[in-house]
Amino acid sequence: MGGQHGGGSGSGQGGSQQDDGQSGAGHGGGGSEGQDSGHSDTKGPARGNIPTCSNSQPAMVFSMLAALDVQPGAKVLEVGTGTGWNAALLSERVGSETVTTIEFDPENAATARARLHAAGYNPVAVVGDGSQGWPAGAPYDRVLITASLQEIPADIVRQTRPGGIIVSPYATEYGGEAVVRLTVEGDGSASGPFVSSSAFMRLRQQRAYRTHVKTYLGGKPWPADGRRTTTSLSPEDVADWLPMFAVGLQTQGMFPYPEKLDGGRYTLWLRDTRVTSWASIDFVPGAEEFEVYQSGPRELWGEAGRPGPRGRVP
Ligand SMILES: C[S@@+](CC[C@H](N)C(=O)[O-])C[C@H]1O[C@@H](n2cnc3c(N)ncnc32)[C@H](O)[C@@H]1O
Question: How is the chain split into domains, by residue range?
Answer without folding.
Answer: 58-206, 213-304
